[in-house]
Amino acid sequence: MAVDQLDAVFGALADPTRRAILARLTQGEASVAEIAAPFTVSQPAISRHLKVLEEAGLISRSRKATARLSHLEAGPLREATEWLSGYREFWDESYDRLDALLAALQHERSDRPDRGDTMGRGTT
pTM of the prediction? Predict the structure, then answer.
């Protein structure tokens, strides 16, 4: 995926309204009026959101009679997910190293001789 397209995809996904529109389009194509129905914003505002999604390649639009229908294009989402998966591997490896360190510390602690509960408490 080209860097410019990746930027456009993440820019489009940064807005909760656009994410909600994409979620709606997983159910199938929809007109602007159908997409706008659950929102408290105007249809022109929804149209602007759709334009951003279309420019990012996340949706395509077609005409059916007088309706302009929007369709989900999942390819760019898959490509963004693949890009993010490299960071998932990084975090998985980091957590594995942390788990190993904690296990080593617990093992070291259990190997120490028990010095009783009064150690370091200043009892007289």
Answer: 0.70
Q: What is residue 112's DSSP assignment?
A: S
pLDDT one digit per residue (tens) for the chain, 124 residues:
677 889 999 999 999 999 999 999 999 999 999 999 999 999 999 999 999 999 999 999 999 888 899 999 999 999 999 888 888 888 888 888 898 889 888 888 887 776 555 555 555 5
For residue 61 the two structure tokens come to: 């639009």
Residue type, 41: V
Cα–Cα distance, 24 to 30 (Å, whole number): 8
Residues 76 and 57 sit within 8 Å (Cβ to Cβ): yes
